[in-house]
Amino acid sequence: MPKDKDDGGWKKFLWNSDTGELMGRTGGSWFKITLFYVIFYGCLAGIFVGTIQAMLLTLSSYKPTWQDRVAPPGLTHTPRSDKAELSFNLNDVESYLSYTKSLRDFLAKYDDEKQADPTKFEDCGDEPADYKHRGDLESDVGSRRACKFPRALLGPCSGIEDRNFGFTEGKPCIIVKLNRIVNYRPRPPASNESIPVDAQSKVQANVIPLYCTSKKEEDAGKVGEVKYHGIGGGFPLQYYPYYGKLLHPQYLQPLVALQFTNLTMNTEVRIECKVFGQNIYYNEKDRYQGRFEIKIQINNL
Predict the structure, then answer these.
(1) What is the reported pTM?
(2) What is the sign, positive or negative, of the torsion defined by CA atoms of 171, 223, 232, 88?
């Protein structure tokens, strides 16, 4: 009599109770297979963990290992919009409310009471000075003190007396900062040759100068006077270097406040601001590397 094809063929393959085989193999065979793969994958995991640990031994907790590949610092501003545009109407408070709120929020950490702890902050003066060396990055000194930057240094753009930062009068302020790079020391220009003639008056010792002008020739007469508020009208060297979040958690960047006091009304004005230094470079593909552009339009109709 022919054997029934459905005589438990696949079931016996999975488990044959007569011979004690699982999927055609005895328990001893499965034990050997399991042991092999446990050892095999255990060795792979050990190699992986060992490689990661070896790599971690080459890394510093305080600074990037390949810092020579870090781009020069970006120059950014507050308030900031997606299209780098400030447009408002003097007769409509709501049109500039978000800008003034952004400035107040940004400057809140520069309040005097937040810089009062002498164990975390020190007075570095209100005149440009040389770099403030606080020891090596990888030493047992621990957390370093930071230079105070009282917001009063920003004058009428500090938000202390004028909570609207000049927007109600059509003389808006923006706050500018250099982005942080661990252990970076910006170097002032070696000479005036690489600086536009109009910006050469901004050069002085121990300061990274900042200069703003019209981006387009047709806007040259529309920018008007730009006032620079801060220490030396630029970024003073005593605030550098920055030691990173672990050693400099309370660090405050120096700021420059720009106030546009006589912009042409009811037209868009395109402005470019740049910092100048020996180790500061520009990249046309990165609109914030060492420079930025901003379009401002003030309406009063």
Answers:
(1) 0.78
(2) positive
